[in-house]
Amino acid sequence: MSRSIPAPRELERIAAAVVRCERCPRLRRYCEEVAREKRRSFAHEEYWGRPVPGFGDPAARIWILGLAPAAHGGNRTGRVFTGDRSGDFLYAALHRAGLANQAESVARDDGLRLGGVFVSAAARCAPPGNRPTPEELANCSEYLDREARALRSVRVIVCLGGIAWDAALKLCVRRGAALPRPRPRFGHGARVALGEVRLFGCYHVSQQNTFTGRLTPSMLDREIDDAKRAAGLASDPFSRRAR
Fold this sequence. Notes:
alpha/beta; Uracil-DNA Glycosylase, subunit E; 6-stranded mixed beta sheet; about 40% helix; about 10% strand
């Protein structure tokens, strides 16, 4: 990407390319099937049913990377981490940290705005059983590469889960970073510096973790607060002090 292209415009181009993507037939069939059959509680809604682009601040210093859209979350609403319990947990934490203007994320036109943060996923289609194949993740890696070039201010990547951690490591290697030996392993609270970027490991905000107490609000708050400090975010765009 030419550095003369403004980040907002380039992110719009990436989003358009993601939405048009047909690289993974298995995932496209699954997303379309879910969109047709729907969950009973959302039977009155029109599902998105397509790949889901990233979302957030083009000048972000923190990049939050998840696994993939949820079948009845992002695959329904068309925005990453929107319309499900995982998104409720994540965006509430970003709001507490002053990085989101509201605590809820229910639809892509609900007025949610992020400051200093961009959110996307290693896979852009909802996978069966939340398990994209290595080939499907590789097919999506181009979008991570393009986002990384557009998000020139990013200093911290918060990786939600092991798949996101692995995708971020591979991204940094493709961008010229040398991995330390032994290869950094994922864990909650894991940290590794790779060139100008630091990777933070965090348990995923899935119900499997949040309903069992493996990941609590205070644990996520600490990770986001540490990421803010490491990224040099001196102010909270949506804090009460900034209003």
